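Minutes, project check-in
Item: structure for the 380-residue chain
Input as provided by the requester:
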Amino acid sequence: MATDEETPLLVENPPTPTLNHKKDVHILCWAFLLIFLAYGAAQNLESTINTEEDLGTISLGILYLSFTFFSVLASLVVKKLGSKTALILGTTGYWLFIAANLKPTWYTMVPASLYLGFAASIIWVAQGTYLTSTAHSYANDFNLHEGTVIGKFNGEFWGMFASHQLVGNLITLALLRDEKGGSTSGTTLLFIVFLCSMTLGTILMCFLSKRNGKEEQMQDSRVTFSSSVVSLLKAMLNLLLDIRILLIIPLIAYSGLQQAFVWAEYTKQIVKPSLGERGVGGAMAVYGVFDAICSLAAGRLTFGLSSITIIVSAGALIQIIVLLWLLLGYSVAGGVLGTVYPLLIGALWGIGDGVLNTQLSALLGILFKHDLVLSFLYLL
């Protein structure tokens, strides 16, 4: 027997949709895959290929400091430009960062990192706004349950997005070669391939439909910048008084921390001692595969707050088990187990990450559909 969430409501004269919503979701998914397969793999390599005076590590630190600063103004920029334009503008920061890696010096990496912090802050607010706006429009046009559509669209997006770890790291494994003396060859060719991938992703963004829902309305041109900032700060404070966002913020904070664990501690303390530097790409590919599969599955199972609660609890439990294993009983093993254990940890952690990414976006889209731009600011 079909559920209410899967069956359209019966209407005498269903409206004719003016936009191809599913096409826009597919374009958004492929564009982000092409952009982040390059950036994700480059980020994994920064601390190992740009080692002179810790240029790679310091560049990433500058990037995330810039990201934190500009996140405060991200929703204002997205509201002013519209989510499609903000998405296209956001891709330019990633392109410049990869280009800077062709000639990695303090004069190229630092400015590129600063600008990427700005670009990343607006692209992620714009992504959440655009995807959820598309889901609302699709549900309204076809009289479907909004929670189900939001869950499916987020599942498709995060499933495709998570696969960037697999594709990007496989390209890295194919093009990089370890030379004698600890050096690595093939980096120039690798970053040229990444630039081509990013260029295709940016071009794809241009084919997105422009969304004109109420969450996409431009602000009056007569409104000054200072008054816009004041209005933004007031809106943020008002949202912080909502008990729902206060309960969600710890989950958002944990989501960021568990991703930081993968990028820093997992690759350095678990993968490298057992599999070496070349094993990092393979381990992250396994992590990406399970992340993608779980994102798609979690999105398909989402239909409302109750399903989100159950799915998030299951993902959190898996990661808790992994953390207890690492704290209480894990040690670097030899032989087959030395290969299996790091890959198993990556797979389990990928399941938890897929759950959190999909469900947090769906949760914000369901609870705060009247102010999507501002609510997705808290995911940064």
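Outcome recorded: Strands lie at 177-178, 184-185.
No further action items on this chain.
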